[in-house]
Amino acid sequence: TKYAHSFLPAVTTEVKAARKSRPMTQELENASMWPMGLCVFCGLPAAGKTTMVRALRDSLKQHKGWLCIHLAYDDLIPLEAFSQSETSSEEAGQHSLASNWKFYRHELLLYLEHFLQALLKECHYLPPPKRTEVTWKNFVFCLKEQGLISLGEDIPSCQHLINITTLRPTYFILDDNFYYRSMRYEVYQLARKYSLGFCQLFLDCQVEVCLQRNCQRTHPLLEETIRAMAQKLEVPNSEKYTWEQNTLILKSTEHTLEDKYVAIQKWLLVCNK
């Protein structure tokens, strides 16, 4: 994987190798279809992911007319997933936190798949039969807030109208740490199942910088949590794992935010040619 010190050359080299393996090639051969894809935005906590996703989303909408749906896991997963029982040991508590996060992460992917099914079939968006009410409400609110769904006048209150079509480039940006490769692979499998594009954006940031930024947060994470995650982090490796070939790595502290999302924009264009 190339680091984007020189943005466009790195982007072009990375994507040329990826064209042979991406699952949506046949879909894009039809010139009447616009690309739709899932984009994993990964990196350590407080690396600057959410700030960059919001800037990218607004820029692509304003200048290109693209639709970027931001799915920020911190906003979608209930607070209890982050809390550790006071009666549990540190080791048991960490295991419980990991199990809770895995459960909710899988649940969000199921909600996303459920939405993709409704979008591709051009039908109403119905609640899935198995759901956690808090997470489901958060997910529905996220879609409503971004204008993707709304309540119709002549349909039951549990059903939602889908307000978007596949007539323009559409990207679902999943914003989380995704520090294990297996976490990212689950998203890749979902994209492949529905012949969607798949790409990864990894925001590389030094641990000490993340810790400084974390202290400025309203609800900071424990320092040991970030350090432990940094040790477990599996950086995308396109040379070893072919499914990770659509990967762009950006240094968090290098270049301006404007430079970064211009590079990402160019990279997405090349990915979907």
Structure description:
The protein is of the alpha/beta class. It has ten helices and seven strands. Strands 2-5-1-6-7 form a five-stranded parallel β-sheet, with helices on both faces. A two-stranded antiparallel sheet has the order 3-4. The two termini are 20 Å apart. Residues 1-32 and 85-93 have low confidence and may be disordered.
How much helix is in the residues? 40-55%
Query: β content, as a range?
Result: 5-15%
Gap between N and C termini: 20 Å
* String of helices and strands: HHEHEHHHEEEHEHHEH
Going across the biggest sheet, name each strand in turn. Answer: 2-5-1-6-7
Shape: globular
- Number of E-type strands: 7
Instruction: Tell me the radius of gyration.
Output: 19 Å
- Helical stretch count? 10
Spans with pLDDT under 50 lasting ≥5 residues?
Answer: 1-32, 85-93
**Main β-sheet: number of strands, strand sense, barrel status?**
5 strands, parallel
What structural category do the secondary elements indicate? alpha/beta
What's a concise summary of this model?
By secondary structure, the protein is of the alpha/beta class. It has 10 helices and 7 strands.
Topology at a glance:
Layout (H helix, E strand, L loop, with lengths): L6 H12 L6 H4 L7 E7 L6 H16 L2 E6 H4 L13 H32 L11 H13 L3 E2 L10 E2 L7 E6 L5 H13 L3 E8 L2 H9 L7 H10 L14 E5 L5 H15 L2
Parallel strand pairs: 1-5, 1-6, 2-5, 6-7
Antiparallel strand pairs: 3-4
Keywords:
five-stranded parallel β-sheet; globular; disordered N terminus; 273 residues; two-stranded antiparallel ribbon; alpha/beta
